[in-house]
Amino acid sequence: MASSSKKAVYSAIFANTVVAILKFVGFVLTGSAALLSEGIHSVADVSNQILLAIGIARSEKAADVHHPYGYGRDKFIFAMISAVGIFWFGCGVTVYHGIHAIQEQHLDTTVLPVAIGILVVSGIIEMGTLWVAWTAVRDGARSAGMTMREFVVRGSDPMGVAVLLEDGAAVLGVGIALVGVGLSLWTHDPIYDGISTLLIGALLGCVAIFLVVKNRLVLLGQSMSDQQTERVLDVLTSDPVVGEVLDIKTTVMGSETARFKAEIQFDGEMVTKRFLERQDMAAIRSRLNDPDQLQSFLIGFGDDIVEALGDEIDRIESKIQKENPKVKHVDIETN
Questions:
Q1: pLDDT of 2 above 60
Q2: CATH code at 227-334
Q3: Which CATH class is domain 2-220?
Q4: How far, CA to CA in Å, does 198 sit from each of 8, 28, 81, 186?
Q5: What are 333's strand-pairing partners?
Q6: Fewest CB atoms within 10 Å of the CB: 138, 212, 224, 282?
Q7: What is the pTM of this model?
Q8: How many CA atoms, within 13 angstroms, populate the side-chain half-sphere of residue 182?
């Protein structure tokens, strides 16, 4: 999933750079406010996707003494910065130019067919990057056992979701711009070009607010999905030494990393039985008739049971991580 998100981010950077150049050339040729807003939209997308690429690179740093759980959350920080950039640079500047276009209403409608052609080419390119992002998010949703909608809202991959929403807004924005430019060409009234610019700005604002809220929740310490938690609980409840699972806490540490913590009421009889199955019972029985040997055995037996319980905890933690690779950190405590 991480490689899919990386592919989506870098594909979007390349495609949106090409599209931004096309749109600004179109603006210079036509003076269309919609094309200008779309050019600003694409520049905002490129800038924000560069931030996502930086976040991906930083999140892949290995854990160290100062950050024992790694740098996975760097993705969420850069995704948050990206979302704020979309709001102020994308939405704010676009709305400003939309208002300016409506007030001025200066537009040479004779060159608008050029704008329409550029928008069509841009839309085709952006639909390609949208498909790459859609595939990345779809794969992430399947891996997490979630629907696409659930993954977009609560999934742990901010990069794929950010690119998906940005590219989706880009395609929709091209459609809005086409309608505005088309109406201006048909009616010879530039106001429709300005109105479409305002709508594109509002669209960018909605995307930005959604991404800010999503990344804020993850940075606060969002829990794993219900499906992921259930898979871990299935491992615990099916284990013979586990009596009851209490005080479950889960935290998303990164798009590919999660932490699971629980208190376990162990079945003491089963822990002891599993320990004794590995012992020489005949040798133990020979020591029970001598009081001194019995006392020595019982003292040692207490240490052995504590060690056996520790071994059982290590075994269960390893089993959880093997069957749930994203759960990199497992903390099991005895209740």
A1: no
A2: 3.30.70.1350
A3: mainly alpha
A4: 28, 20, 23, 20
A5: 263
A6: 282
A7: 0.72
A8: 9
